[in-house]
Amino acid sequence: MTSTPTTEEFRILKHQPRLVSKNSMYNIKHVGTQGKGKYLMHDFFTTMVDTKWRWNVLIFVSGFVITWLLFALFYWLVSKLHGDLNDVKTTTLRPCFENVNSFTAAYLFSIETQTTIGYGFRYVTEECPYAVVGVILQNIVGAGLQAALAGLVVAKVRRSKKRSNTLMFSSVVCIVEEDGVYKLVIRIGDMRRSHIIGARVRGHLFRTMRSRDSRNHPVMCFPLEFNGEDGSPWLFMAWPTQLVHTINDKSPFWKISRDDLEREDFELVVILDGIVSTTSTILQTQTSYMACDILWGHRFNTMASRYNSNDSLVVDYSSFNRTHPVAIPECSAYQVSVFRKLGYSIIHRDPENNNPSYFEIRKTKEESPSQSRILHYRHNKAVSRE
What we know:
This protein is an alpha+beta fold and 386 residues long.
């Protein structure tokens, strides 16, 4: 039989469109939605939080500048109608605004009013009730605008979107056999010293299916359960750990062999949920794997750990994505279970060439060892030899 290719021999992957990119973004575009803008504006705050920073900065600056201009125009009109802007005073009445003799002065007075600077050189008098009302309204509008924009900035800063950049998913997925059970393994790590609290992982397999009446379903989703190395759904992420999915009769990989995997067209989306310990915000990050990202009969290398002079455990991330081949039958987990029910056993040793990827499926119920029957399962064909 042929040995499983090593990581270095793994073929260069071609660019394939993904539902979820490697930078944790969904590559899904919604079109044909009528009234989408109206519904988005109904939830204006969430829409603003979801927009890019450049638009938030533009809205932040524009909000203050526009309100300053509007109230400056109001103050200028009040002064104009009251005759305070005339070069020659035609009345002995007090002006509505002291030292406001132009639009520029009105604009500066508007800024001082809304920001509560209060230099004392320009101020409103009790001569014009409209001017007093305008100052009151500007203080109310300014306080509300400042609270809204400050809340928007705080909400964007507190988001844990950038926190996901320090979480690492392995670039490949390994399928191994442990204690007679097929397992799909992904490695995950956290580069920060402050770790994720209550981290859990779930998976979804998206693939195109053909029904019995030969109709293609665009996308069908199959859930996958992931646990930590200890079998618990809660992850301990103080150091890199492995996400393990047991391939059983409820798994979509139950009847997929190595040859089937090379022909499959699916996408495995892995989602991690948790709480950021430093900010107590909810974190969600995701990545995806195509069929070409799955290595059959490979296991992740051990990440060398040692203690330094400060008695701190050192984890070497240079081996984070490295794997090595291990012996595993090329048939599916379902076929292996059938062989075992028929009395066959799987032997992972090569007495002749000491090949680590060698395996045998041997019939062991015969009375004489000379009558033992070795069955190799490869390329979807059972070949037996006496």
